[in-house]
């Protein structure tokens, strides 16, 4: 593995850790149970990314090769999860301005991650590396869309409140 590929893994692990830390903080601060659950689910997914990418970094740094198969994948149908969750979302629990800002920032972070992974996929010389980064880009898009669905739902139902 070349140094650029290993450096890319270091950077994406750092990026994913930042996301995980941000989502954990947002979950702790969320007053709305649905918003809290959303951020907790994102923490779980980001942890999967960190663990997988860190293990891959360790393998490649030790002189190993890219695996033939990618053993991480999005296991969630974000649209289906949102449809199910929206049935039980309380219509009388407001979303604070802090939560609104956290949702907006989360969408930005996921879009930034998607762009980063698409670029890495284009630059990758190894086919497994290309597939991994392309799959992670799609996963980030799923996250962004899922967060946007929540944001739109809260907005459409007048649940945003000013602090």
Q: How big is the Rg?
A: 17 Å
CATH topology name: Ferritin
Q: How many separate helices?
A: 5
What overall geometry do the principal axes of the alpha carbons give?
Answer: elongated
| CATH first level | Mainly Alpha
Strand content: under 5%
What are the key terms here?
163 residues; mainly alpha; Ferritin; 5 helices
What does this structure look like?
By secondary structure, this protein is mainly alpha-helical. It has one domain (3-156): Ferritin. The protein is built from 5 helices and no strands. The chain has helices at 3-29, 33-61, 78-88, 97-123, 127-156. The radius of gyration is 17 Å and the shape is elongated. The N and C termini lie far apart (51 Å). The model has no long low-confidence stretch (mean pLDDT 86).
